[in-house]
UniProtKB/TrEMBL annotation:
<comment type="similarity">
    <text>Belongs to the UDP-glucose/GDP-mannose dehydrogenase family.</text>
</comment>
<dbReference type="InterPro" id="IPR028357">
    <property type="entry name" value="UDPglc_DH_bac"/>
</dbReference>
<dbReference type="Pfam" id="PF03721">
    <property type="entry name" value="UDPG_MGDP_dh_N"/>
</dbReference>
<dbReference type="Pfam" id="PF00984">
    <property type="entry name" value="UDPG_MGDP_dh"/>
</dbReference>
<dbReference type="InterPro" id="IPR008927">
    <property type="entry name" value="6-PGluconate_DH-like_C_sf"/>
</dbReference>
<comment type="pathway">
    <text>Nucleotide-sugar biosynthesis; UDP-alpha-D-glucuronate biosynthesis; UDP-alpha-D-glucuronate from UDP-alpha-D-glucose: step 1/1.</text>
</comment>
<dbReference type="Pfam" id="PF03720">
    <property type="entry name" value="UDPG_MGDP_dh_C"/>
</dbReference>
<feature type="domain" description="UDP-glucose/GDP-mannose dehydrogenase C-terminal">
    <location>
        <begin position="324"/>
        <end position="434"/>
    </location>
</feature>
<dbReference type="InterPro" id="IPR036291">
    <property type="entry name" value="NAD(P)-bd_dom_sf"/>
</dbReference>
<dbReference type="InterPro" id="IPR017476">
    <property type="entry name" value="UDP-Glc/GDP-Man"/>
</dbReference>
<dbReference type="InterPro" id="IPR001732">
    <property type="entry name" value="UDP-Glc/GDP-Man_DH_N"/>
</dbReference>
<dbReference type="InterPro" id="IPR036220">
    <property type="entry name" value="UDP-Glc/GDP-Man_DH_C_sf"/>
</dbReference>
<keyword id="KW-0560">Oxidoreductase</keyword>
<dbReference type="InterPro" id="IPR014027">
    <property type="entry name" value="UDP-Glc/GDP-Man_DH_C"/>
</dbReference>
<keyword id="KW-0520">NAD</keyword>
<protein>
    <recommendedName>
        <fullName>UDP-glucose 6-dehydrogenase</fullName>
        <ecNumber>1.1.1.22</ecNumber>
    </recommendedName>
</protein>
<dbReference type="InterPro" id="IPR014026">
    <property type="entry name" value="UDP-Glc/GDP-Man_DH_dimer"/>
</dbReference>
Length: 455
């Protein structure tokens, strides 16, 4: 099928590349000429496992191309995916200016039937606004082309996005029941047929329910994480082990194991933004989402938990003290620093006078950029970017782990002990067994695991 993807950000690029991989003819549009040039020269603007190979293969086969030509992009696809950013406004609601600008472009140039697919995460009711924007442009030029807007939210995890796209556990599609809506449904069915061969994975629903589903999923997952973080902090005080508790409750199929890991708080581009946006939507209807307010508050506090542990071990005045930090990205397999807990930790350590050596397997360049904005050039000089994890340790009072990269799972603990000033590990991701750490002579502080470290 002929497909246009508007926006070559994270979601757009993965969607475009994977749809090309399935044999479709994909045209990717972006307003950013530099990004388009990079893509046309074989570059990839984000770090995402497997993406570079998929793009390269399909570019070589002529199934995907990148351009800034709006008229050509509208002419190309019967399916027009809108995958542009919806950054939070000052008040936390999703800013729809890029989505609506994309819609107006379609209305301005379309000629013949189009299915507009909302892929960006957008508040309930956005499809109606997209349709209104297209209609307005159409009528301004006296056109009366037929179209239908469907909602097809993405559930891609950063670091596993290609895999998630190619092996979806569900495909959610919202459409209306008009004749154009039925036609759109048929096209979407054809598009996603390769994923439904063995069993049907598509959930068909009305447009508003599809838009809502995306927020409900992310809000539920964020709730599970904040719930476990809150319990972990209590477990630390009452002397229980949150890991044992996690397994004990996860074995109940009504609860399940996933997304129950206590840690240094959730970050990234989706959970913080979507939780806020859903709260904002509720406020527009004079409702308060009390659970989500708590989820957010608990997460803000949780991002400070590593700093709190450093302070309770080494005191509030950290001047003259040096610390090692492993992991900067908000989670492994990405260089994304958005809302990363490492930013909160580093800010706190630096403000209390410490110096820090940091290491991350892929996020170093992005971290440099973001931390400079957070801290300013002056304070940046207190952060040293190390070439390897072990190179952060010399002269450090403790090692603090923020992101659970695989490479950190089995380090040489003897070498760690030899290089640190004190054999202290503060682990924001519960990577190691506290009992083994004690045997190794390491003072280990996990999240919610103090019963074992006390022995
Ligand atoms: C999320 C959703 O999973 C995805 O479906 C949606 O499309 C976009 O948002 P992503 O933000 O890429 O994906 O990361 P995810 O793996 O979900 O992790 C989000 C955050 O939660 C990370 O900071 C992670 O460290 C944290 N997390 C996750 C926990 O603290 N504990 C857990 O048990 C799971």
């Amino acid at each position: 099928m002929k497909i246009t993807i508007i926006g070559t950000g994270y979601v757009g690029l993965v969607t475009g590349a994977c749809l090309a991989e399935l044999g479709n003819d994909v045209f990717c549009l972006d307003v950013d000429q530099k990004k388009i040039d990079l893509l046309n020269n074989g570059g990839i603007p984000i770090h995402e496992p497997g993406l570079e190979e998929v793009v390269a293969r399909n570019r070589a086969a002529g199934r995907i191309r990148f351009s800034t030509d709006v008229a050509a992009s509208v002419a190309h696809g019967v399916l027009q995916f809108i995958a542009v950013g919806t950054p939070p406004d000052e008040d936390g609601s999703a800013d729809l200016q890029y989505v609506l600008a994309a819609a107006r472009n379609i209305g301005r140039h379309m000629d013949g039937f189009k299915v507009i697919v909302d892929k960006s995460t957008v508040p309930v009711g956005t499809a109606d606004r997209v349709a209104a924007a297209i209609r307005e442009e159409l009528s301004a030029r006296g056109g009366n082309g037929e179209f239908s807007v469907v909602s097809n939210p993405e559930f891609l995890k950063e670091g596993a996005a290609v895999e998630d796209f190619m092996r979806p556990d569900r495909i959610v599609i919202g459409h209306d029941d008009s004749p154009a809506g039925q036609r759109a449904r048929d096209m979407m069915k054809l598009l996603y047929a390769p994923f439904n061969r063995n069993h049907e994975r598509t959930y068909w629903m009305d447009v508003r329910s599809a838009e809502f589903t995306k927020y409900a999923a992310n809000a539920m997952l964020a709730t599970r994480i904040s719930f476990m973080n809150e319990l972990a902090n209590l477990a630390d005080q009452v002397g229980a082990d949150i890991e044992a508790v996690r397994q004990g409750i996860g074995s109940d199929p009504r609860i399940g194991y996933s997304f129950l890991y206590a840690g240094a708080g959730y970050g990234g581009s989706c959970f913080p933004k979507d939780v806020q946006a859903l709260e904002r939507t509720a406020r527009q209807y004079d409702r308060e989402l009390l659970i989500l307010q708590a989820v957010e508050a608990v997460n803000d506090r949780q991002k400070r938990v590593l700093g709190d542990k450093v302070v309770s071990r080494f005191g509030g005045d950290l001047s003259g003290k040096h610390f090692a930090v492993w992991g900067l990205a908000f989670k492994p397999n990405t260089d994304d620093m958005r809302e990363a807990p490492s930013r909160v930790l580093l800010q706190e350590l630096i403000e209390r006078g410490a110096t820090v050596s940091v290491y991350d397997p892929v996020a170093m360049a992005e971290a440099r950029r973001v931390l400079e904005l957070d801290l300013g050039a002056d304070k940046m000089s207190r952060i040293r970017f190390a070439e390897a994890p072990m190179d952060t340790l010399d002269g450090a009072q403790a090692l603090v782990i923020v992101t659970e990269w695989k490479a950190f799972r089995s380090p040489d603990f003897e070498a760690i002990k030899a290089r640190l000033v004190n054999p202290v590990i503060i682990d924001g991701r519960n990577l190691y067994e506290p009992g083994l750490m004690t045997q190794q002579g390491i003072e280990y502080h996990g999240i919610g695991r103090s019963i074992l470290t006390r022995k």
